[in-house]
Amino acid sequence: MQGVCVPILCVCTCVSVLLRSAVSQQHHTESDTYTECTDGYHWDPQTEHCKDINECETIPDACKGEMKCFNHYGGYLCLPRSASVIPAAETPIAPTEALNPCPMGYEPHRDSCVDVDECERDEHDCQPSQQCINTLGSFTCQCPDGYRKVGTECIDIDECRYRYCQHRCVNVPGSFACQCEPGFQLAGNNRSCVDVNECEMGAPCSQRCYNTYGTFLCRCEQGYELGPDGFTCKDIDECSYSSYQCQFQCVNEPGKFSCVCPEGYQLLGTRMCQDINECETGEHQCTDSQTCVNIHGRYQCVDNNRCQDPHVQVSDNLCVCPVNKPACRDAPFSIVHRYMSITSERSVPSDIFQIQATSVSAGAYNTFRIRSGDDNGDFYIRQINNISAMLVLARAVSGPREYTLDLEMVSVNPLLSYQGNYQTSSALRLSIYVGQYTF
Ligand SMILES: [Ca+2]
Ligand SMILES: [Ca+2]
Ligand SMILES: [Ca+2]
Ligand SMILES: [Ca+2]
Protein backbone atom coordinates (compact mmCIF):
# COMPACT_ATOMS: atom_id res chain seq x y z
CA MET A 1 0.00 0.00 0.00
CA GLN A 2 1.49 3.21 -1.14
CA GLY A 3 0.56 6.65 0.20
CA VAL A 4 1.30 9.88 -1.54
CA CYS A 5 1.12 13.12 0.32
CA VAL A 6 1.50 16.53 -1.17
CA PRO A 7 1.61 18.62 1.98
CA ILE A 8 1.36 21.91 0.26
CA LEU A 9 -1.12 24.57 1.33
CA CYS A 10 -3.49 22.30 3.11
CA VAL A 11 -6.44 24.65 3.11
CA CYS A 12 -9.97 24.09 4.10
CA THR A 13 -10.74 22.58 0.74
CA CYS A 14 -8.09 19.95 1.16
CA VAL A 15 -9.22 16.61 -0.05
CA SER A 16 -8.62 13.20 1.30
CA VAL A 17 -7.63 10.98 -1.49
CA LEU A 18 -8.15 7.49 -0.34
CA LEU A 19 -5.66 5.61 -2.36
CA ARG A 20 -6.35 2.31 -0.81
CA SER A 21 -9.61 1.86 -2.55
CA ALA A 22 -8.11 2.17 -5.98
CA VAL A 23 -6.94 -1.40 -6.23
CA SER A 24 -5.93 -3.21 -9.36
CA GLN A 25 -8.15 -5.84 -10.65
CA GLN A 26 -6.86 -9.15 -11.80
CA HIS A 27 -8.85 -11.61 -13.75
CA HIS A 28 -7.51 -15.15 -13.59
CA THR A 29 -9.33 -17.69 -15.61
CA GLU A 30 -9.42 -21.31 -14.60
CA SER A 31 -6.82 -22.21 -17.17
CA ASP A 32 -4.67 -19.28 -16.01
CA THR A 33 -3.39 -18.88 -19.52
CA TYR A 34 -4.80 -15.45 -20.07
CA THR A 35 -4.56 -12.35 -17.92
CA GLU A 36 -5.84 -8.84 -18.53
CA CYS A 37 -5.89 -5.57 -16.50
CA THR A 38 -8.58 -2.90 -16.25
CA ASP A 39 -8.13 0.59 -17.66
CA GLY A 40 -5.24 2.44 -16.05
CA TYR A 41 -3.21 -0.68 -15.34
CA HIS A 42 -0.78 -2.76 -17.34
CA TRP A 43 0.40 -6.30 -16.82
CA ASP A 44 3.78 -6.64 -15.14
CA PRO A 45 5.12 -10.07 -16.06
CA GLN A 46 7.85 -9.83 -13.40
CA THR A 47 5.47 -9.54 -10.50
CA GLU A 48 2.68 -11.17 -12.41
CA HIS A 49 0.34 -8.37 -11.23
CA CYS A 50 -1.51 -5.51 -12.85
CA LYS A 51 0.55 -2.41 -12.26
CA ASP A 52 -0.72 1.16 -12.14
CA ILE A 53 0.15 3.43 -15.03
CA ASN A 54 1.43 6.85 -14.03
CA GLU A 55 -0.54 8.91 -16.51
CA CYS A 56 0.93 12.16 -15.17
CA GLU A 57 4.23 10.97 -16.69
CA THR A 58 3.03 9.04 -19.68
CA ILE A 59 0.41 11.52 -20.97
CA PRO A 60 1.80 14.88 -21.96
CA ASP A 61 -0.28 17.75 -20.58
CA ALA A 62 -2.66 15.35 -18.87
CA CYS A 63 -4.17 18.33 -17.01
CA LYS A 64 -4.77 21.59 -18.76
CA GLY A 65 -4.32 25.11 -17.50
CA GLU A 66 -3.77 25.65 -13.82
CA MET A 67 -4.80 22.15 -12.88
CA LYS A 68 -2.24 19.87 -11.40
CA CYS A 69 -2.04 16.17 -12.24
CA PHE A 70 -2.20 13.62 -9.46
CA ASN A 71 -1.59 10.03 -10.33
CA HIS A 72 -3.38 7.36 -8.45
CA TYR A 73 -4.16 3.76 -8.93
CA GLY A 74 -6.25 3.07 -11.90
CA GLY A 75 -6.26 6.65 -13.15
CA TYR A 76 -5.24 10.20 -12.39
CA LEU A 77 -6.86 13.39 -11.19
CA CYS A 78 -6.66 16.99 -12.25
CA LEU A 79 -6.99 19.16 -9.18
CA PRO A 80 -6.47 22.82 -8.35
CA ARG A 81 -2.92 23.57 -7.38
CA SER A 82 -4.12 24.49 -3.93
CA ALA A 83 -5.38 20.99 -3.41
CA SER A 84 -3.42 18.52 -1.41
CA VAL A 85 -3.51 14.80 -1.38
CA ILE A 86 -3.04 13.32 2.02
CA PRO A 87 -2.68 9.69 2.89
CA ALA A 88 -5.57 7.81 4.29
CA ALA A 89 -6.05 7.78 8.01
CA GLU A 90 -4.74 4.88 9.90
CA THR A 91 -8.25 3.74 10.69
CA PRO A 92 -9.27 0.95 8.47
CA ILE A 93 -11.43 2.08 5.66
CA ALA A 94 -13.96 -0.15 4.09
CA PRO A 95 -12.72 -1.15 0.71
CA THR A 96 -16.09 -0.22 -0.81
CA GLU A 97 -16.03 3.44 0.37
CA ALA A 98 -15.55 5.79 -2.50
CA LEU A 99 -12.49 7.90 -2.80
CA ASN A 100 -13.44 11.59 -3.25
CA PRO A 101 -10.56 13.72 -4.43
CA CYS A 102 -12.86 16.75 -5.01
CA PRO A 103 -13.13 19.89 -2.89
CA MET A 104 -15.72 19.88 -0.17
CA GLY A 105 -19.16 20.15 -1.66
CA TYR A 106 -18.07 18.50 -4.88
CA GLU A 107 -17.85 14.92 -5.93
CA PRO A 108 -16.10 13.26 -8.82
CA HIS A 109 -18.09 12.56 -11.89
CA ARG A 110 -16.21 11.08 -14.80
CA ASP A 111 -13.14 13.28 -15.18
CA SER A 112 -14.22 16.27 -13.14
CA CYS A 113 -15.79 17.39 -9.92
CA VAL A 114 -19.45 18.31 -9.81
CA ASP A 115 -21.38 20.16 -7.16
CA VAL A 116 -23.23 18.14 -4.56
CA ASP A 117 -26.89 19.16 -4.13
CA GLU A 118 -27.01 18.97 -0.36
CA CYS A 119 -30.62 20.14 -0.34
CA GLU A 120 -31.79 17.27 -2.47
CA ARG A 121 -29.81 14.74 -0.52
CA ASP A 122 -31.04 16.18 2.75
CA GLU A 123 -27.46 16.76 3.85
CA HIS A 124 -28.05 20.27 5.15
CA ASP A 125 -28.65 21.76 8.55
CA CYS A 126 -31.36 24.26 7.68
CA GLN A 127 -34.10 24.79 10.25
CA PRO A 128 -37.53 23.38 9.43
CA SER A 129 -38.73 26.93 8.93
CA GLN A 130 -35.94 27.59 6.44
CA GLN A 131 -35.53 26.79 2.81
CA CYS A 132 -32.38 25.03 1.67
CA ILE A 133 -30.86 26.66 -1.41
CA ASN A 134 -28.16 24.69 -3.17
CA THR A 135 -25.10 26.67 -4.27
CA LEU A 136 -21.94 25.66 -6.11
CA GLY A 137 -19.87 23.80 -3.55
CA SER A 138 -22.22 24.53 -0.70
CA PHE A 139 -25.77 25.54 0.24
CA THR A 140 -27.50 28.28 2.15
CA CYS A 141 -30.51 28.40 4.40
CA GLN A 142 -32.95 31.09 3.42
CA CYS A 143 -36.30 32.17 4.68
CA PRO A 144 -39.26 31.74 2.34
CA ASP A 145 -40.85 34.83 0.83
CA GLY A 146 -42.78 36.71 3.43
CA TYR A 147 -40.46 35.65 6.25
CA ARG A 148 -37.36 37.27 7.70
CA LYS A 149 -34.54 35.71 9.59
CA VAL A 150 -34.39 36.37 13.31
CA GLY A 151 -31.50 34.40 14.76
CA THR A 152 -31.78 30.99 13.22
CA GLU A 153 -35.54 31.08 12.81
CA CYS A 154 -37.70 32.50 10.09
CA ILE A 155 -40.41 34.85 11.39
CA ASP A 156 -43.43 35.96 9.38
CA ILE A 157 -43.22 39.55 8.18
CA ASP A 158 -46.24 41.58 9.33
CA GLU A 159 -46.78 43.43 6.09
CA CYS A 160 -49.81 45.17 7.56
CA ARG A 161 -47.48 47.40 9.54
CA TYR A 162 -46.33 48.96 6.30
CA ARG A 163 -49.74 50.14 5.12
CA TYR A 164 -49.75 48.14 1.94
CA CYS A 165 -53.52 48.05 1.81
CA GLN A 166 -55.89 50.92 1.08
CA HIS A 167 -58.62 49.67 3.40
CA ARG A 168 -57.99 46.66 5.58
CA CYS A 169 -55.00 44.39 5.90
CA VAL A 170 -55.00 40.82 7.16
CA ASN A 171 -51.59 39.38 8.01
CA VAL A 172 -51.16 35.67 7.41
CA PRO A 173 -48.04 33.49 7.77
CA GLY A 174 -45.77 34.15 4.84
CA SER A 175 -48.09 36.64 3.24
CA PHE A 176 -50.88 39.14 3.74
CA ALA A 177 -54.21 39.94 2.19
CA CYS A 178 -55.93 43.24 1.54
CA GLN A 179 -59.62 43.51 2.12
CA CYS A 180 -62.06 46.23 1.21
CA GLU A 181 -64.92 47.79 3.08
CA PRO A 182 -68.41 46.77 2.00
CA GLY A 183 -69.27 48.35 -1.32
CA PHE A 184 -65.70 48.14 -2.57
CA GLN A 185 -63.67 45.43 -4.23
CA LEU A 186 -59.97 44.84 -4.65
CA ALA A 187 -58.43 46.43 -7.69
CA GLY A 188 -56.09 44.58 -9.99
CA ASN A 189 -53.10 45.46 -7.85
CA ASN A 190 -54.70 43.58 -4.94
CA ARG A 191 -54.11 46.58 -2.68
CA SER A 192 -56.40 49.37 -3.79
CA CYS A 193 -60.14 49.27 -3.36
CA VAL A 194 -62.51 50.42 -6.07
CA ASP A 195 -66.21 51.05 -5.87
CA VAL A 196 -68.50 48.19 -6.73
CA ASN A 197 -71.18 49.11 -9.24
CA GLU A 198 -73.94 47.26 -7.48
CA CYS A 199 -76.42 48.29 -10.12
CA GLU A 200 -74.60 46.13 -12.65
CA MET A 201 -74.31 43.28 -10.21
CA GLY A 202 -77.93 42.63 -9.47
CA ALA A 203 -78.63 45.17 -6.78
CA PRO A 204 -82.02 44.40 -5.26
CA CYS A 205 -83.64 47.66 -6.34
CA SER A 206 -87.12 46.87 -7.51
CA GLN A 207 -87.12 49.85 -9.87
CA ARG A 208 -84.31 52.36 -10.42
CA CYS A 209 -80.74 51.86 -9.20
CA TYR A 210 -78.13 54.58 -8.88
CA ASN A 211 -74.54 53.62 -8.20
CA THR A 212 -72.67 55.80 -5.73
CA TYR A 213 -69.18 55.69 -4.29
CA GLY A 214 -69.18 52.90 -1.79
CA THR A 215 -72.83 52.06 -2.06
CA PHE A 216 -75.92 52.49 -4.23
CA LEU A 217 -79.36 54.00 -4.02
CA CYS A 218 -82.72 52.67 -5.03
CA ARG A 219 -85.29 55.08 -6.38
CA CYS A 220 -88.82 54.62 -7.54
CA GLU A 221 -90.83 55.61 -10.54
CA GLN A 222 -93.44 58.29 -10.19
CA GLY A 223 -96.41 57.02 -8.27
CA TYR A 224 -94.31 54.70 -6.14
CA GLU A 225 -92.48 55.22 -2.88
CA LEU A 226 -89.50 53.43 -1.42
CA GLY A 227 -90.30 50.92 1.27
CA PRO A 228 -88.56 50.76 4.64
CA ASP A 229 -86.06 48.22 3.29
CA GLY A 230 -84.71 50.84 0.88
CA PHE A 231 -85.05 48.50 -2.09
CA THR A 232 -88.68 47.82 -2.71
CA CYS A 233 -90.96 50.32 -4.39
CA LYS A 234 -94.52 50.34 -3.19
CA ASP A 235 -97.44 51.85 -5.02
CA ILE A 236 -98.59 55.10 -3.50
CA ASP A 237 -102.24 54.94 -2.56
CA GLU A 238 -103.10 58.41 -3.73
CA CYS A 239 -106.71 57.81 -2.83
CA SER A 240 -105.83 57.53 0.84
CA TYR A 241 -104.11 60.92 0.81
CA SER A 242 -107.16 63.03 0.35
CA SER A 243 -110.83 62.65 -0.30
CA TYR A 244 -110.56 65.53 -2.75
CA GLN A 245 -108.49 63.64 -5.28
CA CYS A 246 -111.62 62.87 -7.20
CA GLN A 247 -114.99 64.53 -7.31
CA PHE A 248 -116.76 61.20 -7.00
CA GLN A 249 -114.57 58.16 -6.48
CA CYS A 250 -110.84 57.50 -6.49
CA VAL A 251 -109.51 54.18 -7.78
CA ASN A 252 -105.94 53.37 -6.81
CA GLU A 253 -103.84 51.67 -9.47
CA PRO A 254 -100.22 50.56 -9.61
CA GLY A 255 -98.14 53.71 -10.04
CA LYS A 256 -101.15 55.97 -10.46
CA PHE A 257 -104.77 56.49 -9.65
CA SER A 258 -107.85 57.35 -11.59
CA CYS A 259 -111.19 58.91 -10.92
CA VAL A 260 -114.46 57.37 -11.86
CA CYS A 261 -117.88 58.91 -12.08
CA PRO A 262 -121.28 57.47 -11.25
CA GLU A 263 -123.57 56.20 -13.92
CA GLY A 264 -125.00 58.99 -15.99
CA TYR A 265 -121.84 61.06 -15.63
CA GLN A 266 -118.65 61.32 -17.61
CA LEU A 267 -115.20 62.36 -16.52
CA LEU A 268 -114.40 66.00 -17.17
CA GLY A 269 -110.64 66.31 -17.12
CA THR A 270 -109.10 63.92 -14.61
CA ARG A 271 -111.19 64.37 -11.49
CA MET A 272 -114.44 66.16 -12.23
CA CYS A 273 -117.70 64.51 -13.21
CA GLN A 274 -120.09 65.97 -15.69
CA ASP A 275 -123.64 64.91 -16.29
CA ILE A 276 -124.21 63.21 -19.57
CA ASN A 277 -126.91 64.96 -21.55
CA GLU A 278 -128.67 61.88 -22.80
CA CYS A 279 -131.14 63.98 -24.69
CA GLU A 280 -128.33 65.32 -26.84
CA THR A 281 -126.24 62.18 -27.14
CA GLY A 282 -129.23 60.19 -28.31
CA GLU A 283 -129.00 57.66 -25.55
CA HIS A 284 -132.49 58.41 -24.36
CA GLN A 285 -135.36 56.07 -25.03
CA CYS A 286 -138.16 58.61 -25.15
CA THR A 287 -140.90 58.07 -27.69
CA ASP A 288 -142.04 60.47 -30.34
CA SER A 289 -144.92 61.55 -28.15
CA GLN A 290 -142.55 62.37 -25.37
CA THR A 291 -140.02 65.03 -24.68
CA CYS A 292 -136.63 64.19 -23.28
CA VAL A 293 -135.63 66.21 -20.25
CA ASN A 294 -132.01 66.00 -19.20
CA ILE A 295 -131.48 65.99 -15.47
CA HIS A 296 -128.47 65.35 -13.23
CA GLY A 297 -127.35 61.76 -13.54
CA ARG A 298 -130.17 60.67 -15.76
CA TYR A 299 -132.97 61.93 -18.00
CA GLN A 300 -136.73 61.97 -17.94
CA CYS A 301 -139.26 61.35 -20.66
CA VAL A 302 -142.29 63.56 -20.27
CA ASP A 303 -145.46 63.33 -22.27
CA ASN A 304 -146.01 66.10 -24.72
CA ASN A 305 -149.60 66.31 -23.61
CA ARG A 306 -149.44 67.02 -19.90
CA CYS A 307 -152.74 68.77 -19.51
CA GLN A 308 -155.04 67.39 -16.88
CA ASP A 309 -158.70 67.89 -16.68
CA PRO A 310 -160.26 70.45 -16.57
CA HIS A 311 -157.35 71.95 -18.49
CA VAL A 312 -157.04 71.32 -22.18
CA GLN A 313 -153.97 71.58 -24.28
CA VAL A 314 -153.77 74.50 -26.61
CA SER A 315 -150.13 74.23 -27.59
CA ASP A 316 -147.11 72.10 -26.87
CA ASN A 317 -146.48 73.52 -23.46
CA LEU A 318 -149.61 75.31 -22.57
CA CYS A 319 -152.80 74.07 -20.90
CA VAL A 320 -155.79 76.31 -20.53
CA CYS A 321 -158.88 75.98 -18.37
CA PRO A 322 -161.92 77.04 -20.40
CA VAL A 323 -163.92 79.66 -18.46
CA ASN A 324 -167.19 77.96 -19.28
CA LYS A 325 -166.15 74.91 -17.23
CA PRO A 326 -167.40 75.19 -13.64
CA ALA A 327 -164.28 73.46 -12.37
CA CYS A 328 -162.18 76.19 -13.82
CA ARG A 329 -163.53 78.81 -11.50
CA ASP A 330 -160.88 78.21 -8.87
CA ALA A 331 -158.21 76.83 -11.11
CA PRO A 332 -155.47 78.83 -12.80
CA PHE A 333 -156.53 79.94 -16.21
CA SER A 334 -153.36 78.65 -17.82
CA ILE A 335 -150.68 76.22 -16.85
CA VAL A 336 -147.24 76.16 -18.42
CA HIS A 337 -144.95 73.19 -17.76
CA ARG A 338 -141.29 73.67 -17.06
CA TYR A 339 -138.57 71.28 -15.94
CA MET A 340 -135.32 71.84 -14.15
CA SER A 341 -132.66 69.86 -12.36
CA ILE A 342 -130.56 70.85 -9.38
CA THR A 343 -127.81 69.10 -7.48
CA SER A 344 -127.97 67.84 -3.95
CA GLU A 345 -126.85 69.93 -1.03
CA ARG A 346 -126.83 73.25 -2.75
CA SER A 347 -125.82 76.06 -0.50
CA VAL A 348 -128.84 78.08 0.54
CA PRO A 349 -130.54 80.40 0.04
CA SER A 350 -130.09 79.90 -3.65
CA ASP A 351 -131.88 81.48 -6.57
CA ILE A 352 -132.91 78.64 -8.81
CA PHE A 353 -135.63 79.80 -11.19
CA GLN A 354 -136.85 83.11 -12.45
CA ILE A 355 -140.52 83.56 -13.36
CA GLN A 356 -141.30 86.06 -16.00
CA ALA A 357 -144.79 87.10 -17.08
CA THR A 358 -145.05 86.73 -20.82
CA SER A 359 -148.15 88.79 -21.43
CA VAL A 360 -149.33 91.40 -19.06
CA SER A 361 -152.42 93.52 -19.48
CA ALA A 362 -151.90 97.21 -18.99
CA GLY A 363 -152.63 98.48 -15.52
CA ALA A 364 -152.52 95.00 -13.93
CA TYR A 365 -150.86 94.34 -10.63
CA ASN A 366 -149.10 90.99 -10.47
CA THR A 367 -148.18 88.97 -7.42
CA PHE A 368 -146.38 85.67 -7.34
CA ARG A 369 -146.74 82.76 -4.91
CA ILE A 370 -146.15 79.06 -4.57
CA ARG A 371 -149.58 77.65 -5.02
CA SER A 372 -148.75 74.01 -4.27
CA GLY A 373 -146.02 71.38 -4.05
CA ASP A 374 -143.92 72.91 -1.28
CA ASP A 375 -145.30 71.13 1.74
CA ASN A 376 -142.03 71.36 3.70
CA GLY A 377 -141.38 74.98 2.93
CA ASP A 378 -138.14 74.20 1.07
CA PHE A 379 -138.74 77.17 -1.31
CA TYR A 380 -139.97 80.71 -1.27
CA ILE A 381 -140.71 83.37 -3.87
CA ARG A 382 -138.94 86.68 -3.96
CA GLN A 383 -140.71 89.15 -6.17
CA ILE A 384 -138.39 91.20 -8.28
CA ASN A 385 -140.83 93.56 -9.91
CA ASN A 386 -144.36 93.63 -11.26
CA ILE A 387 -143.67 91.05 -13.92
CA SER A 388 -140.97 88.81 -12.54
CA ALA A 389 -140.07 86.91 -9.44
CA MET A 390 -137.37 84.53 -8.28
CA LEU A 391 -137.88 81.06 -6.88
CA VAL A 392 -135.43 80.61 -4.04
CA LEU A 393 -134.31 77.33 -2.52
CA ALA A 394 -134.50 77.92 1.19
CA ARG A 395 -133.12 74.63 2.54
CA ALA A 396 -130.40 72.29 1.51
CA VAL A 397 -132.12 69.28 0.01
CA SER A 398 -130.70 65.85 -0.73
CA GLY A 399 -131.55 63.85 -3.79
CA PRO A 400 -132.72 61.97 -5.43
CA ARG A 401 -136.09 63.52 -5.10
CA GLU A 402 -138.56 65.43 -7.17
CA TYR A 403 -140.76 68.46 -6.59
CA THR A 404 -143.63 69.63 -8.68
CA LEU A 405 -144.32 73.25 -7.77
CA ASP A 406 -147.20 75.26 -9.10
CA LEU A 407 -145.96 78.82 -9.20
CA GLU A 408 -148.85 81.15 -9.59
CA MET A 409 -149.00 84.68 -10.85
CA VAL A 410 -152.12 86.46 -9.78
CA SER A 411 -153.00 89.54 -11.83
CA VAL A 412 -155.41 92.15 -10.57
CA ASN A 413 -156.58 94.70 -13.10
CA PRO A 414 -158.79 97.40 -11.57
CA LEU A 415 -159.55 98.71 -15.02
CA LEU A 416 -161.35 95.49 -15.84
CA SER A 417 -163.23 95.25 -12.57
CA TYR A 418 -166.47 96.14 -14.17
CA GLN A 419 -166.37 92.85 -15.98
CA GLY A 420 -166.29 90.99 -12.67
CA ASN A 421 -163.20 88.97 -13.50
CA TYR A 422 -160.58 91.55 -12.74
CA GLN A 423 -158.44 88.89 -11.02
CA THR A 424 -156.83 86.26 -13.17
CA SER A 425 -154.36 83.49 -12.33
CA SER A 426 -151.82 81.72 -14.44
CA ALA A 427 -149.55 78.97 -13.24
CA LEU A 428 -146.18 77.59 -14.07
CA ARG A 429 -145.91 73.91 -13.17
CA LEU A 430 -142.26 73.49 -12.44
CA SER A 431 -140.82 70.00 -12.03
CA ILE A 432 -137.63 70.15 -10.01
CA TYR A 433 -135.44 67.08 -10.07
CA VAL A 434 -132.84 66.96 -7.31
CA GLY A 435 -129.94 64.80 -8.37
CA GLN A 436 -128.30 62.21 -6.13
CA TYR A 437 -124.97 63.97 -6.04
CA THR A 438 -123.58 67.39 -5.42
CA PHE A 439 -122.45 67.65 -9.03
CA1 LIG B 1 -47.21 37.99 6.71
CA1 LIG C 1 -71.24 51.57 -5.58
CA1 LIG D 1 -101.34 54.26 -6.92
CA1 LIG E 1 -128.35 63.54 -17.61
From TrEMBL:
CDD domains cross-referenced by the UniProt entry: EGF_CA
Keyword hit for ATP-binding: no
Give me the Gene Ontology terms describing cellular component: extracellular matrix
GO BP field = epithelial cell differentiation
Q: Which family does the record claim for this protein? A: Belongs to the fibulin family.
User: Which Pfam family, any one, appears in the UniProt record?
Assistant: Fibulin_C
**Which InterPro entries would you find in this protein's record?**
cEGF, EGF, EGF-like_Ca-bd_dom, EGF-type_Asp/Asn_hydroxyl_site, EGF_Ca-bd_CS, Fibulin_C, Growth_fac_rcpt_cys_sf, Nephronectin_domain
Q: PANTHER family from the entry?
A: PA14 DOMAIN-CONTAINING PROTEIN, UROMODULIN-LIKE
What is this protein called in UniProt? Answer: EGF-like domain-containing protein
Signal peptide residues on this chain, from the entry's feature table:
1-24
Q: Name one GO molecular function term.
A: calcium ion binding
| Subcellular locations according to the entry | Secreted, Extracellular space, Extracellular matrix
In this chain the EGF-like domain maps to 115-155, 156-194, 235-274
Query: What keywords appear on the UniProt entry?
Result: Calcium, Disulfide bond, EGF-like domain, Extracellular matrix, Glycoprotein, Repeat, Secreted, Signal
Task: Supply the SMART domains for this chain.
Answer: EGF (SM00181), EGF_CA (SM00179)
